[in-house]
Amino acid sequence: MSDRLFTQEELEESSHEVDLQKQICRAKYQEQIDKMESLIKALEDYQQSYGRESNVYFDIIALKAQIVKNKEVVQEFQGII
After folding, report:
1. C-alpha distances in angstroms, 14 versus 23, 60, 67, 80?
2. Which of 3, 41, 54, 60 pairs as cysteine with 50 (C-beta 3.0–4.6 A)?
3. Could you tell me which of 78, 79, 80 has the C-alpha nearest to residue 28?
4. How many whole angstroms separate alpha carbon 46 and alpha carbon 27?
5. Number of H helices, E strands in the chain
6. What angle do CA 4, 8, 13 make, to 5 degrees?
7. Around Cβ 47, how many Cβ atoms within 10 Å?
8. What are 8-63's pLDDT values in tens digits?
9. Cβ distance 59 to 31 under 8 Å?
């Protein structure tokens, strides 16, 4: 390990690279969140259209709950980045 001190320019460049990587990660996870929101909306539309008459009504409720939970976890992780 080197005892060399970093110049201000090197520190700023490193900070900029880290910020850029954070933005890329946030964008990646935002895309996943958007897809989950679209799926939740589609499942809700299906439930409204077909109601309890559908043979998958209760499966949709369970699936939607899992997706909502996953979305919350990804949003929490995205906030940490």
Report:
1. 14, 46, 36, 20
2. 54
3. 78
4. 29
5. 2, 0
6. 100
7. 16
8. 787 777 777 878 888 888 888 899 999 999 999 999 999 999 999 999 999 999 99
9. no
